[in-house]
Amino acid sequence: MHGLRRRRRGMLVLTGLATAVLAASTAPNAAAKPGPADPLRRQVEAIHDTGAVGVHAEVTSPDARDSAYAGTAAMNTLRPMPRDGRFRIGSATKTFTATVVLQLVGEGRMSLEDTVEQWLPGVVRGNGNDGGRITVRQLLQHTSGIPDVKPEIPALNSADGYRAERFRTYTPEELVGLAMRQPHPGTGWSYSNTNYILAAMIIHKVTGRSWAREVKDRIIRPLDLRDTSTPGVFPSILGPHAQGYAAFGSDTGIDVTELDSSMAIGSGSIISTAHDLNRFYAALLGGRLLAPAQLDEMTTTMPAPELGDVRYGLGLAEIPLPCGGSYYGHRGELLGYVTWGGATRDGTRTAVVYVTSDGGHDTEEAMTTLVGQELCQTRS
Q: CA-to-CA distance for 39 and 37, rounded, in angstroms?
């Protein structure tokens, strides 16, 4: 649910990645070490060396799929990271939500210029917040000025809050109501999870079906993303997965794998794998999910001052490549899992990496380096 962070120490901190390193062609092997000719393994080891508990990265191109692992599936154990393990993708969920909205726009069932008030009368109101002055485009673009609900959710903000409320269920209406306690911060670009909770509510209103059902029928099933799910209020990650850890600003991480993620509907609740995310990014940028007009809307970006050199479109960020040009992707984080993934503009090469811990500055810098360098290979 932590989506895209502010720039720190002049570097972009935008991503959401002890003992094992693994290529896709081998089984987990705690004794494996990266060789000089294996840059992906070296980069995954570099991420692990920053203090991440576990790391997995996968890179795909039209004729290849390369994967590497480091660390362990649980703290203080020798359990290797699971092959194609599932994890909470956090704010990478926003790209799924924006895709569904843009599909509905392409079908003529709604418009990006519709106001929130048109679809959700009376929901965004109070403390200077006015749904009649906010469009769907502004929700997806993070230019609505609607306050972020995250500070109002105890389970996301402290160890005690997590222990007390990790199984608490929220309704979307309740979440928006919590956000409305805060004053409208004004116009301009400002990241807010509440925008995408509202987008999920609008999807429900337009279609008469839940956000989760629409994501499943429009994206997950057509792309055969077998390890991707919208868990709703179910707190566990089913199937192979590593434990997630959060430190909440302290020096010690606690296991936060169990979580009712209803507080992140539309904004951060999807569970997936690196492989499925790569397939999603390739299909999206390759034009398989959106008509050209809607894909152009999604990838038309504007400055996002909180994010340094990064620009933001509709549920998708545009990030500079170290070799010149840019790629499209999204950071994701939801308690204990941080991921970063993206694809070249034509979707022919993708890269996804995730870690099973908070992801401090050094960790996230190493993650962004991995994705940028891997996506640059197609340009050499």
A: 6
Per DSSP, the three-state class of 72 is: strand
Distance CA(66)–CA(58), nearest Å, equals: 6
Residues near 368 by Cβ (< 8 Å), separated by ≥ 6?
12, 14, 15, 319, 340
H helix or E strand, kind and range, residue 350: strand 350-355
Residue 280 CA, chain-centre distance (Å), reads 12
Give me the residue label for tokens 């811990």. Answer: 357
Count CB neighbours of 183 within 10 A.
Answer: 12
Q: Which amino acid is residue 87, in one-letter code?
A: F
CA 177 – CA 160 distance, rounded (Å): 23
- CA 277 to chain CA mean position, Å: 10
pLDDT 10s digits, 303-359: 999 988 999 999 999 999 999 999 999 999 999 999 999 999 999 999 999 999 987
Mean pLDDT of 28-57: 78
Tokens, residue 357:
């811990």
Whether the CB-CB separation of 70 and 20 falls below 8 Å is answered with yes
CB-based burial, 259-272: b 16+ in 10 Å, e otherwise: bbbbbbbbbbbbbb
Longest Cα separation, the chain: 60
Distance of alpha carbon 160 from its chain centroid, rounded? 25
Give the closest residue to 189 by CA, choosing from 139, 124, 133.
139
For residue 334, how many other CB atoms are within 10 A of its CB? 31
- Buried residues in 202-222 as b, exposed as e (16+ CB within 10 A): bbbebbeeebbebbbebbbee
Q: Which residues contact 83 (CB under 8 A, 6 or more apart)?
A: 22, 27, 28, 67, 69, 240
Give the number of residues written for the chain: 380
